[in-house]
Structures are given as structure tokens and as C-alpha cells.
From TrEMBL:
Domain (TNase-like): residue spans on this chain: 98-230
PROSITE patterns, per database record: TNASE_2, TNASE_3
Gene behind this protein: ga23369
Gene Ontology cellular component annotations, sorted alphabetically: cytoplasm
Molecular function per GO: endonuclease activity; hydrolase activity; nucleic acid binding
Biased composition (Basic and acidic residues): 259-270
Short name of one Pfam family: SNase
Keyword Amino-acid biosynthesis attributed: no
Keywords: Endonuclease, Hydrolase, Nuclease
Region annotation Disordered: where it falls in the sequence: 247-270
Stated name of the protein: TNase-like domain-containing protein
Length: 270
């Protein structure tokens, strides 16, 4: 990911004026310094960075916060492309995995989460539609040629088909297949119910940016995979423990059950 940032900067400054140079620095290094210092004053990452990485704007801002802090401490700051590349990689090599996998949209509510599985996985690769494979290959070529409108159009085709470019454990962009996972054994409050928002936020905090292990047992009538989720080795579904410990909605003396709420809503009595 650090190399992606530096390659992005090198691409921007290939035709840059020598006026960008900071104290005799290479134009690529000058571009890095300019963008880091611009982030300090505007809190904005470079406009074109999203074309080269798949992470969210929030994650990109996390990177630049770290780069800014390190830049201020650098004595002296890097002046050659080699020094700048080492600076970026060393600064970001210990970033948390959550920095590159933040996606709040992956959690629909308190008991459903979307996951993306690398299509190179043996259990997935055989089911990728030919048109998706073609679109992914053409998008890679379009990005390499800096034909971003075409790349964006191809990305929409990929996403509409249930796939998406995602970072793997090494921060490399891979094609992921989307699966909707319905947590087994629990029924969280609906979004408009008491504790509905809290249920969603709690699940998001548990799984966001983490390494998940999913055990699928069935498929429900909505096409979701029903199964158990372990997050960093911890079992995510805690409804029975919450009920026994009178936590969350179970702290109420007479909690409204989600299944009863949905029934009342269907009958027009909710």
C-alpha cells in the first residue's frame, strides 16, 4: 500500500515542473512533500489517490496523518525517490488492518454482514461469470492506461454483478465475490426498533476490518448464507449470553422481540 502511494506520486510528477522541487529534491519527492503539507492545512488527501487504491477516504486520511507526523520528525526529510519510498513504506508498514478494510456498508443490521471472498479461492474461482472476468481484466488495462472513465464504468458492471475489488491481507487489490451472511442463532432488533441502531453499531465494531472465519450451514429464503462467524477467534453470536446477563435489549423487564415486532408490523399493529 505504501508503494501504491509512491507510485501514484511518481505518476503525477512525471511531467511536473522543477518548481515543485523542495531544496533540490527529486520532483516525485517534492510531490510527496507538497501533498503531505497540503494535508496538514486542508485535511484533504490527493484527489487522484482513489484511482490507485481501493481503500476508503477515511483510511487514506489515516495514512496521511501518519505520513505527516513522520515527515515533521524526519531529519532531514527524504530527497531521492529511493529515500522517499523507504520513508513511505517504513511509516505505513505497521498500520492496522482496519486502515485498509473499513467499510461500514458491509453491515446491514445487527445480524447480517456482507463479506467478500477472493475469487482465486478454489471454492469460488469456478463460479465467476465470464463477463465479470472480462470486465475485471479490461478495468485493469484501463487503469494502467489512465482511462479512468472507462475503468469506473467497468467497476459498476463488476459491482452490479455481485463482485468488487477489495484489498487482501497483503494490501493487494483482488477481485472479491460478495456473500450476505445471516448470523445463525440470533435475531437482532430491526433498524427502527429500540436498540436497532446499537445492534448494528455493535456488530460493525466487532467485525470491521477484522479477519473473519465463516461457517455456513444453510441458505435462507432471502438468498443469504446462514452460519456462524468467528472474529479473530472470538464467536460473534452472543444472544444467549446477553439474555442471561440481561445486557442490551435484554436489560429491559419486558423487551420486544424482533420476530414479534415484525409480526405486528405485518398485521398493522406495530
Amino acid at each position: 500500500m505504501g508503494n501504491s502511494i509512491f507510485r501514484f506520486l511518481c505518476g503525477l510528477c512525471a511531467s511536473a515542473s522543477q518548481e515543485l522541487a523542495l531544496h533540490g529534491a527529486h520532483p516525485a519527492v517534492a510531490a510527496l512533500g507538497r501533498d503531505v503539507l497540503n494535508f496538514q492545512s486542508t485535511s484533504q488527501v490527493p484527489d487522484g489517490l482513489s484511482r490507485h487504491v481501493v481503500s476508503s477516504k477515511k483510511a487514506q486520511a489515516n495514512w496521511y496523518n501518519k505520513l505527516l507526523a513522520a515527515w515533521k520528525k524526519a531529519r532531514p526529510p527524504p530527497k531521492t525517490p529511493e529515500e522517499a519510498a523507504r520513508f513511505v513504506v517504513q511509516t505505513l508498514k505497521n498500520h492496522q488492518k482496519a486502515d485498509v478494510e473499513v467499510d461500514a456498508k458491509s453491515v446491514a443490521d445487527g445480524d447480517t454482514v456482507n463479506v467478500y471472498v477472493d475469487t482465486s479461492d478454489p471454492g469460488v474461482c469456478g463460479s465467476v461469470p465470464r463477463e465479470v472476468q472480462k470486465a475485471a481484466a479490461e478495468r485493469a488495462k484501463a487503469r494502467a492506461a489512465k482511462n479512468y472513465p472507462k475503468a469506473d464504468a467497468l467497476l459498476k458492471t463488476i459491482v452490479d454483478a455481485g463482485y468488487r475489488p477489495v484489498p487482501n491481507a497483503r494490501g493487494e487489490e483482488v477481485l472479491g465475490k460478495k456473500y450476505r451472511i445471516r448470523l445463525s442463532g440470533i435475531d437482532a432488533p430491526e433498524s427502527s426498533m429500540p436498540y436497532g441502531k446499537e445492534a448494528k453499531e455493535t456488530l460493525l465494531k466487532l467485525v470491521q476490518g477484522k479477519c473473519l472465519k465463516v461457517f455456513v450451514y444453510d441458505e435462507d429464503r432471502y438468498g443469504r448464507c446462514v452460519g456462524d462467524i468467528y472474529c479473530d477467534g472470538v464467536f460473534v453470536q452472543w444472544e444467549k449470553q446477553a439474555q442471561a446477563g440481561r445486557k442490551g435489549l435484554w436489560a429491559s423487564s419486558n423487551p420486544q422481540k424482533p420476530w414479534e415486532w415484525r409480526k405486528d408490523k405485518r398485521n398493522g399493529t406495530a
